[in-house]
């Protein structure tokens, strides 16, 4: 039946029996017979034929749309089964926001690995634009990223949480005594960003133009290095995915970042291509979503 469904999809996609037959490398009479066989097996008509033309029946239109998902899932299932038959380890490639400080991802990864020990999980780290490019080019299956642009219909855009924004600053800095702070009040304190060398300019443009930091900028390769710079009173660090109650270094204070009377907030999402919605991708996304809840 799978082959017949493929023939039916070709007929609908081309709106022509002759063009579908050419695409599928069979005769027009053969593809017509295959569609009729499919209709007999299903027990209902897919097409309403009028001379040499046809239209989809309501059942045929519904069946066509659902069959696209069915065949896509079938192909992915065959690919994964082939890997297992060849002793090729199933792999899930995840892109992780370089500057994210929450623990949800670690907890989700632990649960996923316990449930699917046969799956090799590979992690790629990056800033926002690096992760977007990795996902666009297919180098990762899923990314945990912040939202900086409108959602695209090409991707599944799963909002994990709407996070409040904070900064981290040395306890020895007088600013640490404030209950909250605004970007304008930080204009004389250097901003420490976690960014790769290639992404420093892009990250600075975002935090300067969108968030509103107007002072100097310093850079660290990872969170640990950035926090050491904070402890050394070199500046403050905006933190991604933070919660004020989370334990951090005793030398560091975490202060809510406000714009006017409201704390700045940001969406954090799991993104993946709709065409890549395989079992492991969706399973990991579901686990990750639960950790945020």
Keywords:
alpha/beta; 24% strand; 14 strands; five-stranded mixed β-sheet; 293 residues; three-stranded antiparallel β-sheet; 9 helices
Main sheet strand line-up: 4-3-5-14-6
Structural class: alpha/beta
Tally the beta strands: 14
Order of helices and strands, N to C? HHHEEHEHEHEEEEHEHEEEEEH
**Percentage of β-strand residues:** 15-25%
Shape: elongated
Q: What does the radius of gyration come to?
A: 26 Å
| Average pLDDT score | 90
Helix content: 40-55%
Number of helices: 9
**Biggest beta sheet summary:** 5 strands, mixed
Low-confidence stretches: none
First-residue to last-residue Cα separation: 42 Å
Characterization of this structure:
The model has no long low-confidence stretch (mean pLDDT 90). The chain is built from 9 helices and 14 strands. The chain is 41% helix and 24% strand. The two termini are 42 Å apart. The relative contact order is 0.14. It is elongated and about 85 Å long. Helix 1 (2-14) packs across helix 2, helix 1 packs across helix 4 and helix 5 crosses helix 9. A 5-stranded mixed beta sheet has the order 4-3-5-14-6. The chain has 293 residues and is an alpha/beta fold. The chain has helices at residues 2-14, 17-24, 28-42, 58-85, 104-115, 128-136, 200-211, 223-231, 279-292; strands spanning 47-50, 53-56, 91-97, 120-126, 142-146, 155-164, 166-170, 191-194, 217-220, 237-239, 252-256, 258-259, 262-263, 265-273.
């Amino acid at each position: 039946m799978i082959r017949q469904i493929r023939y039916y999809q070709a007929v609908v996609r081309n709106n022509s029996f002759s063009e579908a037959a050419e695409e599928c490398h069979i005769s027009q009479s053969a593809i017509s017979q295959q569609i009729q066989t499919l209709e007999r097996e299903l027990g209902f008509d897919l097409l309403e034929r009028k001379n040499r033309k046809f239209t989809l029946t309501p059942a045929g239109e519904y069946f066509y749309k659902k069959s696209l998902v069915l065949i896509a899932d079938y192909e992915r299932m065959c690919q994964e089964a082939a890997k297992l038959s060849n002793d090729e380890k199933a792999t899930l490639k995840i892109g992780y926001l370089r500057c994210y400080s929450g623990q949800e991802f670690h907890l989700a990864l632990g649960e996923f690995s316990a449930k699917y020990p046969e799956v090799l999980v590979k992690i790629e780290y990056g800033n926002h634009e690096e992760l977007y490019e990795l996902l666009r080019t297919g180098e990762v299956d899923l990314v945990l990223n912040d939202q900086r642009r409108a959602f695209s219909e090409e991707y599944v855009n799963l909002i994990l949480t709407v996070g409040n924004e904070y900064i981290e600053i040395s306890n020895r800095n007088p600013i640490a005594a404030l209950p909250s702070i605004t970007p304008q009040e930080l204009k004389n304190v250097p901003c420490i960003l976690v960014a790769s060398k290639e992404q420093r300019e892009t990250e600075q443009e975002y935090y300067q133009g969108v968030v509103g930091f107007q002072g100097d900028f310093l850079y660290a390769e990872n969170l640990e290095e950035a926090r050491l710079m904070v402890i050394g009173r070199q500046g403050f660090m905006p933190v991604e995915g933070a919660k004020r109650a989370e334990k951090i270094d005793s030398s560091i204070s975490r202060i809510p970042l406000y714009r006017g009377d409201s704390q700045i907030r940001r969406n954090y999402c799991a993104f993946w291509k709709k065409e890549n919605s395989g079992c492991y991708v969706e399973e990991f996304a579901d686990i990750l979503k639960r950790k945020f809840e």
